[in-house]
Structures are given as structure tokens and as C-alpha cells.
Amino acid sequence: MSASQKPAPATNGVALEQLFATVDAVKATPSIARFTFRIRNQWDTGSRNCSTVSTFTGANQQLSHPKPFTLEADEPGILLGQDLAANPVEHLLHALASCLTTSMVYHAAARGIAIEQIESAFEGDLDLHGFLDLDREVRKGYQRIRVRFKIRADVPDEKLQEIVQLGTGHSPVFDSLVNGVPVSVAVERL
Amino acid sequence: MSASQKPAPATNGVALEQLFATVDAVKATPSIARFTFRIRNQWDTGSRNCSTVSTFTGANQQLSHPKPFTLEADEPGILLGQDLAANPVEHLLHALASCLTTSMVYHAAARGIAIEQIESAFEGDLDLHGFLDLDREVRKGYQRIRVRFKIRADVPDEKLQEIVQLGTGHSPVFDSLVNGVPVSVAVERL
Fold first, then answer.
1. Cβ-based neighbour number of residue B184 at 10 Å
2. Buried b (16+ CB within 10 A) or exposed e, A24-56
């Protein structure tokens, strides 16, 4: 294998040269750090709707995924749906799980911490008294979310905690969900 | 068709009898309103990981989806992934879109408001100076999210705004994301 064919050095599957090059590029040209992600959603009927994920803006460019991704949603029968897809609050847990995991994997890689395996379990508690307007004291959203990570890595016990904190300390979804995000909503006639 | 074979009355695809029966059941037995949703996530490599959505707790029962749903995550190439799936912050937008849509559809149905069509577009702004630890003043999460709904319904203009407010006023994901949720995180060795 010639030098040009060698795979780039990677820790945890993260191309470190590209990661550090990104940091240098942002330092040189701060505007490339601004990203806008977007989806379009279409209602089908009842609790069934579907989002298309196609383009995003970043590094001062309009960018596209190689093909649009389709994300579906439904509700289980007990919540009046047909149970053809995960429901919105389950999708929210997936967003949180995937973001915490990727954030800890990337930041561990940047520090040279090799991780062999990560599994996690996420649970969120909801009380329908909120959604159904039966008790104004009960919030509509999750009351709390519990996360349990299991990590296999050749590190001392105290380092496991540090790895997880690399996730909670950097994850965009964790920050968004724990600290809240301003959301503006407009409507027009179709 | 005999009376027993008649489809239940539905508005917006929502079975109204079942919706009102749910409200009555919760009033009679408040504990059935408590739900716990859950997912399990498994890291593959780099930015690739996958959640399984299988069981949930509600109405004082352990419940299961008819088959487990699999939700994937990756990052685009510019964020060091292989772009095989939507990324975590795009999944977050889908969770928000699907929940706002379902919430407005259900609550409009309960009020007898028929909706013909709903389309929506969601955008969120992120600045990587946060994630990359390059500026402590820049948050890791979304700085703001913009939502645009387009609704077709035989209602006056001011009613369109009211329909959207049925979404923002009841959606569990909207409430979770705008107002924040406490998240506890534990870790153990795998």
C-alpha cells in the first residue's frame, strides 16, 4: 500500500485529521461554523405524518444529503394511532440518544480516548393530564428523562464518568432539550 | 352494513369516540394517564448509531409496538460522517414537527374543526463554535428554530392561527423543547 492509500488515522471511527482541520478552518474563517438544518413535514391522516430531510446550510454553502431521508411518525393504538412508526416523543429520545453518543465519541476521539462499545437506554415520563387539558398544573411535555449509558473502554472507572460528560457537555440536542430553545411559529393558508 | 360494522365517526382521521372515551377514562382513573416511553441505542462507529423502539408503559400496563421500530443516525461528510441517515439535530426537528402536527390534528378534531391538508417546514440554527469549544459564549444547541405551517381548511383566516395554537399549546415535544426537561445521566461499565 502506498502512502497515499493509507487510511487516515481514526479513533472511534472519527477521522482525526479532518476533525482537527475543521477546528483550524473555523478559527481561520468563523462564518463556516454556522449551520442551518431543516426538514419538511407532510401530514397524512390522524397521527400519521412524515418528514423529508434533504438539504442543509453549512460552511457558507447549500449542501444536500446524497438522497433525501424519510422519517415517519404515528401513535400506538392506545393513543388512537395505527402504530406504523415510532411516535414523536420516542423520536425525541432517539434525537437525544444519538446526539449524546456521537458527541462523546467525537470528543473522546479528539482526546485520544478509545471506546470499544456504547449501549444506552433512555426513558421519559409523560402524564396525559397535560395533553388532555385535564389538569393545568401538569405540563404537556416530558416531566423527566432518565439516561443510562454502558461503555466498554480500557480506562479506569472515573474516566467512564468523564467520557459521558464529554457527551452531556457538548451535545447540541442535550443542550437544546435541557436548556430550551426559542421556537417561532408562522402559519399561512395552503 | 350492520350497525356494528359502521366505522366510528372520525374527524381528521381521529376516532372521536375513542378520544372522548380516553378523557372519561382518565377522569375516572387518573393513574392511567401516566406513560413512560423508552428507546435503546447502540453505537456502531463514528457518527453512526441506531435506536430500537419496542416497549412503553401506559394505562398501568406494559405495552409493545407490534414490531420494534429502528431509528438510525449518522452525520454528513462535512461533519465527518458517512451520511447514511439523518443526523441527531435533524431528528430533533422531526420530533417537533410530528408532535406539533399530531397535537393540532387531535385537538382540532375534538373541537369539530376539519383539516384537509397540513404541510410544514422547520429550520434550526447551530453555530459549531459551541460544539468545538471555540467560544464559551456560543451555546452547543440550537440557537433558534423557525416553523412555518401551511394549512388547508374551510375556516376563516383567524381560525388558522387558532389551529396552530392548538398544536403549540398541547404538543409534548414543543413544551419539552421550549421549556426544557430535566435529564439525569448514569454510566456503568459494559
1. 10
2. eebeeeeebbbbbbbbbbebbebbbbbbbbbeb
Cα–Cα distance between B37 and B88 in angstroms, integer?
18
Q: Strand (E) positions, chain B?
A: 10-11, 14-15, 34-45, 48-58, 61-73, 117-127, 144-152, 183-189
Instruction: Count the Cβ atoms, other than its own, within 10 Å of residue A85.
Output: 23
State ipTM. 0.96
pTM for the structure as a whole:
0.96
- Between CA A188 and CA A122 the distance in angstroms is 37
Residue A18: list chain B partners with CB under 8 A. Answer: 80
Q: How far is B122 from chain A (nearest CA, A)?
A: 5
Query: Looking at chain A, how many residues does it have?
Result: 190
Q: Least CB-CB distance to A128: which of B35, B142, B167? A: B35
For cell 479528539, the residue is A110
Q: Note whether B53 contacts A123, CB cutoff 8 Å.
A: no
pLDDT digits (tens, 9 = 90+) for A124-149: 999 999 999 999 999 999 999 999 99
